[in-house]
Structures
1.
Amino acid sequence: MKTLSATAQSSPNIAFIKYWGNRNAALRLPVNGSISMNLAGLFTRTHVTFGNRPADSLFINGAPISGKGLERVSGILDIVRQSAGIGLRAEVASENNFPTGAGIASSAAAFAALALAATQAAGLDWPESAISRLARLGSGSASRSIPSGFVEWKMGESDEDSFAVSIAPPEHWDLADCVAIVAAGHKATGSTEGHVLAPTSPLQAARVADAPRRLQLCRRAILEKDFETFAAIIELDSDMMHAVMMTSQPALFYWKPATLAVMEAVRSWRKDGLQVAYTIDAGPNVHVICSQRARLQVAAFLREVPGVSDVLQANVGGPACQV
Ligand code: DP6
């Protein structure tokens, strides 16, 4: 019998225009489109084997996972089983080469690698858009870790047309992400719970209404490599998402004093002529986007900011791929 197994690798991504809030939580259909870049050198590698076993099992960095984490994975495997017409259970083994809970969305890389490995293992030869849709069902941002380089997740009208596409390859623009780590622990409120709270903020409606304008400006800034416009729009988008978080009920405050210190430092370095801009996800760590040429200098500057314990660095990454 042919072995039903495959291994896939995928990078996390950093959003420039953020996904925050769903109009259908079960299908992870977002209230607005989002734009991101993949992070090269950081990855999750996932091995999926379907076989005659009593139940699905999941290992992350060698440790067995049960409960909610396993259920979320089984939900994806069920779709794959149904499409492939197989009833076999799977063993899923996943390894990250970057620390989980360090301000890098590990669920994005994890569900992207799972979607690709599971479909390949089951013998399904799906187009990129279908794999992006499947990854989306596991974690919204995972849809963006399937295509290459700079990526846009179109919100779509339904499950069928809500997937991510590449808007430019990695070599299009030599950007880098320097992640200033100000707290390495797991975040207090995860994104899935955060999306549910988004509509309780009176600011969310304004954020969503203005999203097409921000998407358009960000897309154009990337295509034209216009750093000034890019910096202004990604900082605005991140600030708007955090304003929504801070005004949700209950309120979500992710920033630490050192988060603000980095934001302020980035603004002053930019005033001095350095091309840098910040963006912050659902946590206290600050992603500082700069050119690859300036990367080492920016990382060194960031290490001097009080409260920054470490700096992770990544250039623009490629697509999820089979390994
Ligand atoms: C702040 O994709 O992690 O990073 O779909 O519930 O897994 P789930 O949420 P997730 O949310 C990401 C939120 C964000 C912004 C972004 O990456 O666009």
Note: DSSP finds nine helices and 16 strands in the chain.
2.
Amino acid sequence: MALITKAIKGTKDVLPSEVYKNQYIEATCLSAAENCGYKEIRTPVFEHTELFQRGVGDTTDVVQKEMYTFDDKGGRSITLRPEGTAGAARSFLENGLNNETLPQKVCYLTSCYRYEKPQAGRLREFHQFGIECFGASEPIADAEMISLAKQIFDELGVKDLHLEINSIGCPECRANYHKALKEYFSEKEDELCSNCRERLERNPMRLLDCKVPSCKEIAKDAPVVLDYLCDDCREHFEKVKKYLDAMNIEYQVNPKIVRGLDYYTKTVFEYVSDAIGAQGTVCGGGRYDGLIEELGGAKTPSLGFGMGLERLQIVMEAQECEFPEPKKPDLFIAAMGEKAQLKAVEIAKDMRDEGFSAVYDVNARSLRAQMKYADKLGAAFNVVIGDGELEEGKAKLKNMKTGESSDIDLTTFVSGFYSISMDEQLKDLEINGEAFDFNSLFGISQN
Ligand code: ATP
Ligand code: MG
């Protein structure tokens, strides 16, 4: 087979046989966020480039090296979103959500684009689950955000992620810290990468986040921000820790965490896994009290996190976390002949109207081939309809798991299916002595 082209480097297809894992992770994220009062927001995949230059910060790696930026046909500079916060913040302001009751709590599932070297856990198109809480200044909000991420990991059965937290202060206490950093790094200026030499003037904290090995080495002994916090920031950090303690959330204070965005303030945090190699940060976030102002709004203390969904899934697979079985059809209808096909279409519609999944062969193959197909699909029940069944108005409904068959009336098929599948459940109940599962009874095909 000679394909005319292949998928772009650093992108990944999710195949139908695998997508249930993504769906499960995504649904778990959304429902956990919803339980904390977050509502989904959807923003465009591309934005004006200046949004990210301002909203992520033009001294960051993301803006300096990683963005997919291009001119559109009208000559405007457009960028594919490298992260979710800037777009959500723009939307918050542009749509006047800042005038509604605060906080505004939003969450999203989005694709993100970064021109990075593809490797395990690092893609050029990846996906994030993110939350943003606009208009909340108290430490209880920081702790709630951190606990929501943990809630998601717990529900997914992910173990052994360690939580690292830090405070990077506010612009006031940071002025002193910047001075100390400048002094420290200036002495070693010749050994820094060209980006870092430039950052030294504009945003020396960025040097702590540089991935160039020689810069990393120098950064090891740099002054730590916690020694420079003002009283307000120190107290804020102490309270965040107190709330985490109260929720029994374990953490380590890691003064080296500064996070990728320019406008982070006070609390920053990461959940890191040791199970998946170098790209171990599954979730990162923090407070960004300066961002909304930076984008042209009034001062609005805010915070949020981004969770890398591919990395999360890699961790889950490495830890052999369970994914619920993908849904299979409730019924396969094998139809022999044109008349039977008409009946199959009719029954399938009635079944689907009642919320069951029903599948038939759209290729009208031989009975043998249809049964093989039914087996592949893993349908719970099947029924064969041919001339004989049509004439009699009756068919055999076969339970594919037990092999048992029951008579079913073709004119009242759905109610017959209902009671037969209910009987099966009751039998299961007797056999297993387990609690009767009413949900699965009334919505075999619902999740
Ligand atoms: P890293 O240090 O790994 O480059 P980052 O600080 O650039 O991460 P963030 O901007 O904080 O990452 O994004 C939040 C999360 O998104 C990360 O913790 C990670 O799980 C995920 N992520 C970031 N970049 C990629 C990528 N290129 N491919 C896959 N996932 C990514
Ligand atoms: Mg990065």
Note: The two ends are 39 Å apart (CA to CA).
